[in-house]
Automatic annotation (TrEMBL):
Species in which this protein is naturally found: Allium cepa
PANTHER family, A to Z: GLYCOSYLTRANSFERASE, SCOPOLETIN GLUCOSYLTRANSFERASE-LIKE
Key words of the record: Coiled coil, Glycosyltransferase, Transferase
TM spans (from-to): none
Name of protein: Flavonoid glucosyl-transferase
Gene designation per UniProt: UGT73G1
Coiled-coil blocks: 425-452
Top-rank lineage group of the source organism: Eukaryota
InterPro entries documented for this protein: Glyco_transf_N (IPR058980), UDP_glucos_trans (IPR002213)
One matching Pfam family: UDPGT
Family from the record: Belongs to the UDP-glycosyltransferase family.
Ranges for domain Glycosyltransferase N-terminal: 9-245
Upper lineage: Eukaryota, Viridiplantae, Streptophyta, Embryophyta, Tracheophyta
Length: 479
């Protein structure tokens, strides 16, 4: 670092959702470990999600500058209750109002940025106006959306060739990508299906991207080399892969990561401790997914029928109508149901876990990759169907459960029958050659991930490059 200048100061403002806050905390720690002064910006209702992991990181690490948290007021919107400052606490029918409030954060953000005048600001998804404000103030801005290269490339080719409008075939080939990627047309993410307020934010995102200096991506080169190159050369945007972010902090508390766990640590570990290595399937659909009662019943029957041990995380909505008669008794000792927030990283890290049924959210997928697990894939919305293609077709570490369409609305989705779930789980957890090969590949990916973040590794080096580039921008701006 050039001693004639103040330390590089970066402000990071993530979208107010668990899947964005968790990797942002990891990103803050990575910047801080490189000597950067970091301020993370959020609202009061989200403070607790940052406070304890960042306090812990500041205490246990030797950061030159402890990570700071700043707050801006969450706007009041008629009809949106006070506790709705995070996607996880917003019921589906209030999502649109929540996004209205998110759009209104622009005003307090402008005042904050003027006052703090950092060297760079990192914008979370749905907060694209950050680029407009930063550009007015001549502050470089970057994007951090919490997704990977392949999903961005797939989405680019779908848009570029207007595949959703130009094709009526049941299955569509996504042209010109590094691999042959075919998707059911109905499963291709169609962002026109989101609420109008969200769609508007996504349109603005596209426009504001032109003002962004580039993207920080939570991935590593060796995982998706063809897509990293495609993104830079064909999509034509600057991007730095600096992940897997979660592997950078050896002191991370894997138990209460993200939220307070609904199960105590000792009973979870004791349950897992009684299972043989690789015998347990972990089933979780992230922080923001909902299912119909009918679908939950099918999952219960499918998991029971698979004969394998499992941990299943179910969002607790108080309605237990989905539990099939006598199921709880029959699976006693073999199936553990966690209602609410699970200590996912702690569970995934346990040697008893041998497979992961996931909704293909990028954080969850990357967490599974980092611990060397193969997957059953069950994408629901956002860019999850693209991540399924990466896991199944490119990395070849997944078995698709057979999701038919892309939808935010649980009522709109075709029910996946218990039989399909049972078949996919048996295939994944089985011991034939195919299953063994998936396991072998998954372990290989985990080893590559660890290497990428070590000194000299692809992500480590690119993070150093990013910081040098930001310091150069700071110096030019200060001249
Ligand atoms: N997560 C967790 N416990 C849960 C559910 C989710 O720790 O019960 C964490 C998970 O480890 C991941 C994040 O929440 O880091 C979910 O992010 P992802 O991108 O996978 O999905 P999203 O929630 O955004 O759909």
């Amino acid at each position: 670092m050039n001693s004639n200048h103040h330390p590089l100061h970066v402000i990071i403002f993530p979208f107010l959702a668990q899947g964005h806050i968790i990797p942002t905390i990891d990103l803050c720690k990575l910047f801080a470990s490189h000597g950067v002064k970091v301020t993370v910006l959020t609202t009061k209702g989200n403070l607790s999600r940052f406070h304890s992991p960042l306090t812990r990181a500041n205490e246990l690490s030797t950061f030159l500058h402890p990570i700071q948290i700043s707050l801006i007021p969450f706007p009041s919107v008629s009809g949106l209750p006070e506790n709705c400052e995070n996607m996880a606490t917003v019921p589906p029918h209030l999502k649109s109002l929540f996004f209205d409030a998110v759009a209104m954060l622009q005003q307090p953000f402008r005042a904050f940025l003027k006052e703090t005048n950092p060297d760079c600001v990192v914008a979370g998804l749905f907060l694209a106006w950050i680029h407009n404000v930063a550009s007015e103030l001549n502050i470089p801005s970057l994007d951090f959306h919490g997704s990977n290269f392949s999903s961005k490339c797939m989405s680019h080719t779908v848009e570029h060739h207007n595949l959703l409008d130009n094709s009526t075939a049941e299955t569509v080939l996504l042209p010109n990508l590094p691999h042959k990627i075919e998707m059911r047309r109905a499963l291709i993410p169609d962002f026109r299906k989101v609420a109008p307020s969200v769609f508007q934010l996504l349109i603005k995102q596209k426009e504001a991207e032109k003002l962004s200096y580039g993207l920080i991506i939570n991935s590593f080169y060796e995982l998706e080399p063809g897509y990293v190159d495609y993104f830079r050369n064909v999509v034509g945007r600057k991007a730095w892969h600096v992940g897997p972010l979660l592997l950078n902090d050896k002191n991370v508390n894997t138990f209460d990561r993200g939220s307070k766990s609904a199960i105590d640590e000792a009973s979870c570990l004791s349950w897992l401790g009684k299972k043989s290595a690789g015998s347990v399937l972990y089933v979780c659909f992230g922080s923001a997914s909902f299912f119909t009662t009918r679908q939950l019943r099918e999952i219960a029957v499918g998991l029971e029928g698979s004969g394998h041990a499992f941990i299943w995380v179910v969002r607790d909505d108080g309605d237990e109508q989905w539990m099939p008669e006598g199921c709880e008794e029959r699976i006693e000792g073999r199936g553990l149901i966690i209602k609410g927030w699970a200590p996912q990283m702690m569970i995934l890290n346990h040697e008893a876990v041998g497979g992961y049924l996931t909704h293909c959210g990028w954080n969850s997928s990357l967490e599974g990759i980092c611990v060397g697990l193969p997957f059953v894939t069950w994408p629901l919305f956002a860019e999850q169907p693209y991540n399924e293609r990466l896991i199944v077709d490119v990395l070849k570490v997944g078995v698709a459960v057979g999701v038919k369409e892309y939808s935010f609305d649980p009522e709109e989705r075709t029910v996946i029958e218990a039989g399909s779930i049972e078949t996919a789980v048996k295939k994944l957890m089985g011991d034939d050659e195919e299953a063994e090969e998936r396991r072998r590949r998954a372990k290989e990916l985990a080893a590559m991930a660890r290497k990428a973040v070590e000194e000299g590794g692809s992500s480590y080096e690119l993070m150093s490059d990013l910081i040098r580039e930001l310091e150069g921008l700071r110096d030019r701006r200060n001249k």
